[in-house]
From TrEMBL, chain A:
This is 4Fe-4S ferredoxin-type domain-containing protein. It holds the Pfam family Fer4_11. One of its GO terms (molecular function) is metal ion binding. Residues 88-117 form the 4Fe-4S ferredoxin-type domain. InterPro entries: 4Fe4S_Fe-S-bd, 4Fe4S_Fe_S_CS, RnfB_subfamily. Keywords: 4Fe-4S, Iron, Iron-sulfur, Metal-binding, Repeat. It comes from Paenibacillus graminis. The keyword Manganese does not apply.
UniProtKB/TrEMBL annotation, chain B:
SUPFAM superfamilies: 4Fe-4S ferredoxins (SSF54862), Fe-only hydrogenase (SSF53920). It comes from Paenibacillus graminis. This is Iron hydrogenase. Residues 6-35, 36-65 form the 4Fe-4S ferredoxin-type domain. InterPro entries: 4Fe4S_Fe-S-bd, 4Fe4S_Fe_S_CS, Cytosolic_Fe-S_CAF, Fe_hydrogenase, Fe_hydrogenase_lsu_C, Fe_hydrogenase_ssu, Fe_hydrogenase_ssu_sf, Fe_hydrogenase_subset. One of its GO terms (molecular function) is iron ion binding.
Length: 214, 474
């Protein structure tokens, strides 16, 4: 293991972002192929659940997403160790997640959200709990935490071709075999406001700083 | 009257003001400050729906009360069963009315499908981009309880007969050249708004959709022995502007609307899902005759250059009385916004131009105004790659797929053509029979009554801002 190597992350340049939310939509699309989400909007049968959020203030818009913190506080807060460091990404094991919200509270960036879990495009029921809905007792829907996983294990159709050099420095193949070199948000952003930044793979600290701080 | 209601809208609650729609709008109809909700100038808007295709600002439905979303769907004319996300830029739909009519046994329900539907409908069910499913589409329409499954491609073949004859006449007499095609309602509306003084350069032909509409309530009604007044005529179109076209006052035959209602590719998918039809496992079925039989030339109307290619295949043979040596006319295929070529038709050197995307047309219009336009025949399609890229087509979740989606739909259209036995409009036996039994000669008395139209100047009286208000809000 190379001590210098750190987790990559996607960062946004607020000055370029026009707030179109294409990044949110793309993020949702590539993470829900198992839910029958195809290429066309018409294939979507569930709410759009992205893993990054375009925030809006009076003076700027830009997406916020997980910084893949080296000492991830979310992982420290998780009582069931559902959050792990895997292949250079802080990843949530959705099946292990108990929906306790500790990670969401611990994240200094608000990069984690809790939503209903879906399977095959329909709500995934919780095995034990029931709740009263439409005056009937029904199985409660499973809730799970969602966060940016740098499009690990996803395929971005047309992504690398259209993304061109949009991925900033791009990922070194050795660092992430199963990670897409162009996360979906980076690939689709029409303003190239997003960049995948590799930290610590360069030879000097100044290069690192340049990569992280604009 | 329906045509006075705007079809393209921007939902001020959802619009983030990114103005990507303004960047694709070919006629600068989207007005607003960056970062603020935008409005559509209904006067300028040509209803092409390119803004609807590009907008990615969706309603975060998990954050909004379900009632609010329900109300929005209703306002947009969507079936309550639709689950897909709602976006800021949208077109109002007609699926609710069509569903009601389909349940009405007193009506004789006739449907026609544009060439570009069969290469894109399957995308709404998760099949790969451009999957070609004419058979499943016909089967689905039959399951939806349409009494007759007809085809706009048939109308495209009729268009070639009429427009081709018109062109040859104009070239021979040297009158009103260049002649522009008139199949694309967005282009027609743009010409009426931006260049009313050039309207007599447009072919007087109605679009293939309206031609089929007119024939359904005359020739088709006679063939089927039904009362034309009982016919409910639906068209499935890749185009958001076709609803505007079918509502135009002049689109009437003997006091009846030619096409009663238009739905888009996306709305047809909604109706199929709503009826619980398992699209993926439908068998291949055929279209009904006579208005469902088409040639390869009719099917390529769905792509840019298609009308031109179909016209040349027939025009060549009508002028030279010889068989055209090559049916695949690569010089008009392609994706550039403006393509030009010279075609040798016997003695005649026909100069043609193909315009894909309205933003490329103004240079040509200026040339015509200045009397310096070298072309005889100009095809104009409002959308960037012709109808395969229309505003009513399946909307993509990822912008990175746009190029390959258009490419896949296009090659599917060409593949469909190359597999047809008959590939020239004038050789389509159903067309030959139609002229023999019913229409007589192209441009003759009956065709003139049923298949040709006139245009109206839409030169501006209202101020753009107030029109924008009217267009942008409901
Ligand atoms: S896609 Fe780019 S421009 Fe659009 S909201 Fe995301 S970061 Fe901003
Ligand atoms: S979720 Fe928050 S705390 Fe956890 S790694 Fe990402 S940014 Fe850091
Ligand atoms: S309508 Fe859509 S594309 Fe246009 S500005 Fe609003 S959010 Fe952006
Ligand atoms: S429908 Fe077409 S013309 Fe109208 S606003 Fe949208 S892009 Fe512009």
């Amino acid at each position: 293991m190379n001590h210098a190597s750190s987790n990559s992350l996607v960062i946004a340049e607020a000055a370029k972002c026009i707030g179109c939310k294409a990044c949110e939509l793309a993020c949702f699309a590539v993470h829900n192929r198992d839910n029958g989400v195809g290429t066309a909007v018409g294939t979507v049968t569930m709410p759009v659940l992205p893993r990054l959020y375009v925030i809006r203030t009076d003076s700027f818009t830009m997406p916020v997403q997980c910084r893949q913190c080296e000492n991830a506080p979310c992982a420290g807060a998780c009582p069931v160790q559902a959050i792990r460091q895997q292949d250079g990404v802080i990843a949530i094991d959705a099946e292990a997640c108990i929906g306790c919200k500790a990670c969401a509270l611990a994240c200094p960036f608000g990069a984690i959200s809790l939503y209903k879990a879906y399977s095959g495009g329909a709500e995934l029921p919780q095995p034990l709990l029931q709740e009263r809905r439409d005056s009937k007792l029904q199985r409660k829907t499973r809730i799970t935490a969602y966060k940016c996983d740098l499009c690990r294990n996803t395929e971005i159709p047309g992504g690398s071709a259209a993304g061109g050099d949009a991925g900033g420095r791009g990922a070194s193949a050795a660092a992430a075999q199963d990670r897409n070199p162009y996360p979906a948000c980076v690939a689709v952003c029409p303003e190239k406001a997003l960049q995948l930044v590799e930290v610590g793979t360069g030879s000097s600290r100044s290069l690192n700083r340049e990569g992280v701080i604009f | 009257m329906r045509s006075s209601e705007p079809i393209i809208h921007i939902d001020p609650e959802l619009c983030t003001g990114c103005r990507r729609c303004a960047a694709v709008c070919p006629v600068d109809a989207i007005i607003g400050e960056p970062g603020r909700p935008q409005e559509v100038d209904a006067h300028r808007c040509v209803i092409c729906g390119q803004c609807v295709q590009i907008c990615t600002a969706y309603a975060p439905d998990h954050l909004e009360p379900a009632d609010g979303l329900k109300a929005k769907r209703l306002q947009r004319g969507q079936l309550p069963s639709v689950r897909e996300p709602l976006f800021a830029a949208y077109s109002t739909g007609q699926a609710l009315g069509v569903k009601r009519a389909l349940a009405d046994s007193a009506l004789y329900k006739v449907v026609q499908c544009a060439p570009a539907i069969r290469v894109s409908l399957a995308e709404e069910f998760g099949l790969p981009l451009g999957t070609l499913t004419p058979g499943k589409m016909a089967a689905a329409l039959r399951r939806l309880k349409f009494d007759r499954i007809y085809d706009t491609n048939f109308g495209a073949d009729v268009t070639i007969m009429e427009e081709g004859t018109e062109l040859i006449g104009r070239v021979m007499s040297g009158e009103r050249l260049p002649m522009f095609t008139s199949c694309c309602p967005a282009w027609v509306k743009h010409a009426e708004t931006a260049a009313p003084e050039l309207l007599d350069h447009l072919s007087s032909c109605k679009s293939p959709m309206q031609m089929v509409g007119a024939l359904v309530k005359t020739y088709g009604a006679k063939q089927d022995g039904v009362d034309p007044a009982k016919i409910y005529s639906v068209a499935v179109m890749p185009c958001t502007c076709k609803e505007f076209e079918c509502s135009r006052e002049e689109m009437e035959v003997d006091g009846l609307r030619e096409v009663d209602v238009v739905i888009t590719t996306r709305e047809l998918a909604h109706l199929i899902k709503d009826a619980g039809i398992d699209f993926m496992n439908l068998p291949d079925e055929s279209f009904d005759s006579p208005l469902g039989l088409y040639s390869g030339a009719g099917s390529i109307f769905g792509v840019t250059g298609g009308v031109m290619e179909a016209a040349i295949r027939t025009g060549y043979e009508l002028v030279t009385h010889e068989t055209i040596p090559n049916l695949q006319l690569d010089f008009v295929r392609g994706e550039e916004g403006l393509r030009t070529a010279t075609v040798q038709l016997g003695e005649l050197e026909l100069k043609v131009a193909v315009v894909a995307g309205l933003k490329y047309v103004s240079a040509i219009l200026n040339q015509v105004k200045a009397g310096q336009c070298p072309y005889h025949f100009i095809e104009v399609m409002g959308c960037p790659e012709g109808c395969v890229s229309g505003g009513g087509q399946p909307k993509l979740l990822l912008e990175t797929m746009r190029k390959s989606a258009y490419q896949a739909r296009k090659s599917s259209v060409y593949r469909h053509d190359s597999h047809q036995q008959v590939r020239k409009s004038h050789e389509n036996p159903a067309i030959i029979k139609l002229y023999k039994d019913f229409l007589g000669e192209p441009l003759g008395h009956v065709p003139h009554h049923l298949l040709h139209t006139t245009y109206q100047s839409r030169e501006k009286a209202v101020s753009p801002i107030s029109a924008g208000r009217e267009g942008g809000r409901i």
